[in-house]
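Holo prediction. Input below; ligand is nicotinamide-adenine-dinucleotide.
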Amino acid sequence: MPTSVVTGGAGFLGSHLCDRLLAEGHRVICLDNLDTGTLENIEHIRSPEFDFQQHDVTGYLEVPGAVDFVFHLASPASPIDYLRLPLHTLKVGSYGTHNALGLAKAKRARFLLASTSEVYGDPKEHPQSEDYWGHVNPIGPRGVYDEAKRYAEALTMAYHRQQGVDTHIVRIFNTYGPRMRPHDGRAIPTFLRQAMENKPLTVFGDGSQTRSFCFVSDLIEGFLRLIGSDYHLPVNIGNPGEYTILQLAEEILRVTGSTSEIVYEALPQDDPTVRQPDITLARSLLGWEPTVGLEEGLRSTLDMDADRETAHTAS
Ligand code: NAD
Ligand code: UDP
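Structure of the complex:
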């Protein structure tokens, strides 16, 4: 039975990854300091092969026994989280990534870094392919996240090139699904919550900025294909379906049947104007492409979160 370590495993993506790995027959060691994750995300897991350890990966990291895979997801991810935790975000991208890579090296494990489309910043190339170097403001408020991830990518390549670690880098584009925190500030959980509460949907700026939204199960499939491959340079995983944020708000009103109004608020500094993955590489290398469209994904998110709420209330 293979053993996987998942840092950030009690977070949104990490908890779905733990579920999938257990379903694939892995033993899973989930390391999380619960900064932005929660035990509720993993409380449904009953498997004896699942081990949760509350641990900050920026500190000393040791895992007894054999480890075959290290998935390094630990990091604040929502703008409101990394703006609240700027130093921690830089620390987890640097020390945390060093420690996770050191673990992979010591165990001769395959390693996957959860990087981000934010390495492209406010891109001047559209859509973004992996060979675009990006347009990031290093000293703006988002710099703490963007540069931490850029550093983490550099570090990962150095461990691969100099230390021979079997590393993989996934550049994740906006991903959504059940278990996102309703107040995590990201567009989809915010709009869903506002729509369900019949409160105004808060579109920042004029809503003409674009994003491309991937459903979580598609992303996790991409993780598994990538870590099983022999490819070591970054790979975009995301859904190329591109929407303006105003279109997203309108779609959420339609899907929820809400009569909420849309209100416009100030655009945050350095908010990227466009974002859309070029997934040519993922298609050719991994045979991967997304299978869940936005409407289906939003409906699944609503249904699965409602089921979870019901189960929680009943217990
Ligand atoms: P999340 O905030 O739900 O999960 C992050 C998890 O990391 C949390 O459980 C948090 O408690 C944990 N964590 C933070 N610092 C830690 C530390 N020092 N030690 C141990 N655990 C720590 O966010 P998410 O959306 O699940 O993102 C997971 C990863 O994917 C992040 O690395 C993020 O940068 C990356 N990513 C996510 C998206 C997305 O759209 N969801 C997009 C691009 C990249
Ligand atoms: N956004 C918005 N209203 C909100 C939350 C976000 O208009 O209540 C916008 C935000 O300004 C950005 C887009 O939605 O242009 C996506 O934001 P999110 O925080 O989800 O992700 P990121 O900016 O990291 O792509």
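Residues 78-79, 174, 185-187, 190, 202-204, 209, 211, 245, 268, 271 surround uridine-5'-diphosphate (ligand 2) (CB under 6 Å). That is the main takeaway for now.
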